[in-house]
């Protein structure tokens, strides 16, 4: 036990155990299976649209909730893309990619996930719109006025998908 505790693992934290129990209970519900399938379908649409728009997706697509876009063949970095997309109200994470030539603080890619927007109720139609807006920003990475315009469009889209329909407190 001394190899594990206290070095790399602490004690049995009750709030962590409770959190896992709640998560596992959620995973057993039929709704979870529907949600998980939709998460994958949405990520696939995101990847497919970006490929059609000329962007390289690591592994040629996705089989899960993530899309990893490589900019090794583009004149901008993952950091540049992250900042531009952020200005447009689209959250991604800069990420290293296979064949990486830049530092982990700059990167040559971004990672995009589908679970959060899927949880809000967005489906393939909305992910197609979002993927095209991502490509529009990246195709015009220096055009801050376009980024501001797209941010307003993203706000309008998001406003139709309320996170909570009633107070939870």
CATH architecture: Alpha-Beta Complex
Q: Mean pLDDT, as a whole number?
A: 93
Cross-sheet strand order for the largest sheet: 1-2-4-3
**Cα distance, first to last residue?**
41 Å
Please identify the structural class as seen in this structure: alpha+beta
Helix content: 40-55%
**Major sheet description:** 4 strands, antiparallel
Q: What would CATH call the homologous superfamily?
A: Aspartate Aminotransferase, domain 1
CA-based shape: globular
The CATH topology turns out to be Aspartate Aminotransferase, domain 1
The amount of beta strand, in percent, is: 5-15%
Number of strands: 4
H-E string: HHEEHEEHHH
Q: Helices, strands, pairings?
A:
Layout: H1 14-27, H2 30-52, E1 56-57, E2 66-70, H3 78-87, E3 93-95, E4 109-113, H4 115-119, H5 124-139, H6 144-159
Antiparallel strand pairs: 1-2, 2-4, 3-4
Helix pairs in contact: 2-5, 5-6
Observed structural traits:
169 residues; Aspartate Aminotransferase, domain 1; 50% helix; alpha+beta; single chain; 4 strands; 6 helices
Task: Explain briefly what this protein structure is.
The chain has 169 residues and is α+β, with helices and mostly antiparallel strands. The chain has helices spanning 14-27, 30-52, 78-87, 115-119, 124-139, 144-159; strands spanning 56-57, 66-70, 93-95, 109-113.
Question: What does the model show?
Answer:
The radius of gyration is 19 Å and the shape is globular. With 169 residues, it is an alpha+beta fold. A four-stranded antiparallel sheet has the order 1-2-4-3. It has one domain: Aspartate Aminotransferase, domain 1 (Alpha-Beta Complex), CATH 3.90.1150.
